[in-house]
Amino acid sequence: MLALYHNDMSSCAQKVRLCLAEKELEWESRHLDLRAGEHQQDWYVRLNPRAVVPTLVDDDTVVPESNVINEYLEDRFPDHALMPDDAFGRAKVRLWTKQLDEGVHDAGIAVISFALAFRHQYLNKGEAGKAMLESIPDPIKRERRRDVIENGLDSTFFKTALLRMLELYDDMETRLARGPWLADSQYTIADAALTPYVVRLDHLDIMGLLDEHPRVLDWYNRLKSRPSFQRAIVDWENSQYLTLMKQQGRENWKKVRRLAIR
């Protein structure tokens, strides 16, 4: 039986839940409250030394890292294929997921989301929030998170993060001019992996960043019509987080738009 340690609003968890839904796999939910620091407890760090979600458990096999998990699921359960048949097609999928691991995730989630919304949760916790910050294992990510929490949109990292995300959406717009999906003529792991990085704009109510990306908007609207989107994302939406995210996004939209000017 598959079990997934995940969080309801985690972008990395969303992409794995999308693949599980697309492949019609049954799985056991083991939900972690990230704001309570459950992912930083010793028992979980033994499963996932980076103290992040998600982690997949397949009987006695433990697989961390969302992009690795999705390729594992594809190899382990080949039905409802989410990778192209040809080597170059699979390479194109990996070029998209590689972007996520090389800066996009940190820009779109660790910086933009925290600068706009989640920093307030840390600040409101006082000393407990500081303790959670100090528990981040990676010193580079820890210090970047500290700057974002303390300075919000005035963080030295915020504008750079916005520009990196716009670069991603430019790449997607260009690719979608040649076909309906990101890496192939069919929906693949690439589409599942990139979905959360538009969902997050939606949840933060800053979709205006995509005003010059009509093909990306069309791609996103088509994704929302797939049953997997409901099962993997909508069914797990946390109303408390959504309220905070949308409120902060709306209040700060004018400044976000100004900072996004290239």
Integer tally of domains: 2
Assign the CATH architecture of the largest domain. Up-down Bundle
Question: Which structural class matches the secondary elements?
Answer: alpha+beta
CATH fold name of the largest domain, please? Glutathione S-transferase Yfyf (Class Pi), Chain A, domain 2
Apparent shape: globular
Q: Regarding quaternary structure, how should these chains be classified?
A: single chain
Assign a percent range to the helix content.
55-70%
Distance between the termini: 48 Å
Tags for this model:
262 residues; alpha+beta; Glutaredoxin; Glutathione S-transferase Yfyf (Class Pi), Chain A, domain 2; 2 domains; 4-stranded mixed sheet; 12 helices; 7% strand
Q: In a few lines, what is going on in this structure?
A:
The chain is an alpha+beta fold.
Q: How would you explain this protein's 3D organization?
A:
- By secondary structure, this protein is of the alpha+beta class.
- The protein folds into two domains: 2-76, Glutaredoxin (3-Layer(aba) Sandwich); 87-259, Glutathione S-transferase Yfyf (Class Pi), Chain A, domain 2 (Up-down Bundle), CATH 1.20.1050.
- It is built from twelve helices and four strands; from the N terminus they run E-H-E-H-E-E-H-H-H-H-H-H-H-H-H-H.
- Strands 2-1-3-4 form a four-stranded mixed sheet, with helices on one face.
- Helix 1 runs parallel beside helix 3 (66-76).
- The radius of gyration is 18 Å and the shape is globular.
Topology:
Blueprint: E1 2-6, H1 11-22, E2 27-31, H2 42-47, E3 55-58, E4 61-64, H3 66-76, H4 87-124, H5 127-134, H6 139-151, H7 158-176, H8 189-194, H9 196-203, H10 214-224, H11 227-232, H12 239-259
Parallel strand pairs: 1-2
Antiparallel strand pairs: 1-3, 3-4
